[in-house]
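User: Structure tokens for both sequences below?

Assistant:
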Amino acid sequence: MLKLDLTADVTGVSLFLNQLRAQRAAKAIAEALNKTALSARDAVRKEMPRRFTIRRPWVLHGIGIRYARSGSLRAAVFSRDAFMRDQEYGGIRRGSASQIIPRGRMAIIKQSRVLPKSMQPKALMEKKNVSYEAGKLFERRDKNRIELLYQFRKQANIPQRFGMEETVRSEALRMMRREFERALLKALME
């Protein structure tokens, strides 16, 4: 009769399997975070035209994400443009060029498009028929007519109207659980 006794030290294999499981879980979490961040970014971009007049697409493209990795389980949705911070939190902007308010025909033009450089205050100041007085820029149209082009204020009140934080939070709460379950199931099937 032949009798075999086999013993094996499986602690190394067990440790390897646990590490493999942890790596797969971290990868699944990172994937879920990334999909949630992408969805939140798209929700913010979709919401912006309702809150702002978008004259140039680069404002929408300024909303970006920082991807999560399995070693760093943190994703972020952010705005590349510093001026959008003022739109998020509101407040008062102070300084010599805080607020330039177009008036008259300049206001009409600005409603539908971006004013070209030739119609900006700096370029207009170089013309002979344009003058500055008491925080206002005037243009002499003819002998009897003077038109107000711009009004300048040293202080501008900026309303809190972006709502990016609120949009990202609601989208993350809506998407994260579903995306995490989907990614974890996929990782366990591999």
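Moving on to the next sequence.
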Amino acid sequence: MKFTEEHEWLRMEDGVVVVGITEHASTQLGDIVFVELPEEGQAVSKDDEVAVIESVKAASDILSPIDGEVIEINQAIIDEPSKINDDPLGVGWFFKIAPSNLTQMDDYLEESAYNKLIE
């Protein structure tokens, strides 16, 4: 698993990259009340704004961490955004990307480096 400085996580699963926000981010945002996700089949580029989350405290844009195509979104968090707060690294994932350039993952932090960032 890799982490961005914008508090997203990336996990490889069967050749695709699953993306979500970290526990730190969900805690800082507070109760998440709304999520807008990209469309399946949408081509994305690294740093594109691809999703929006709103909480009782703030609204935040989610950036695509890599180039590729969105192949699946997590409908469960649209229906029940609190799943993100309950399990941000598990059932609270946002979308899956078929990557076009896996070397972009090398730019991101290992868990130990991310933990130092948020200390």
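User: Anything stand out in the second?

Assistant: Strands lie at 2-3, 8-13, 16-21, 32-36, 43-44, 49-55, 59-63, 68-73, 95-99.
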